[in-house]
Predict the 3D structure of the following.
Amino acid sequence: MGLCPLHDDRHPSFLVDPDKNLFYCYGCGRGGDVIRSLAEVGPAVVLCSWTTTIGYGTLLYSLNRALRSFGWYAIVGEGTTLVTALVLLPALLILARPRGSAAPR
Ligand SMILES: [Zn+2]
């Protein structure tokens, strides 16, 4: 049990079942599978990634070529991580589901 990231939680009410890839919050009643959790927290992940990218983007104005290069590589790495976390891994989870099984509601 942990603090729920989906509401202002003061007492641990958030439960994750890693064997079944399910989550449920006894405080706010939200729950579901990995895809549902991405729908809940995905926008926050994108916003956090965007602010990180802006931070790395400031390195592109450096006079030092090494720092400019680091900025480019960090931005590409951030974009790759974001696409992997929000698109590639969920797609692989959907493809890995046994045939005939539907997502839990
Ligand atoms: Zn909650």
The longest strand covers residues 14-17. The mean pLDDT is 90. The two ends are 21 Å apart (CA to CA). Residues 4, 6-7, 9, 14, 25, 27-28, 30 surround zinc ion (CB under 6 Å).
